[in-house]
Amino acid sequence: MVLIKRKYANKPDWTRVLKRKFTTRYFKNADFEGYASVTSIQKVSKPLIKNILGKDYCLADDGYIWLEIMPFKGNYCMTTMYDQNKEIVQWYFDITRKKGLTEEGIPFFEDLFLDVVVLPDSNVLLLDEMELKDALDKGEITEQEFNMAYTEAKEIMKNIAVDVNKLSDFSNKYLKEFF
Question: Pfam families given for it (predicted)?
Answer without folding.
Answer: DUF402
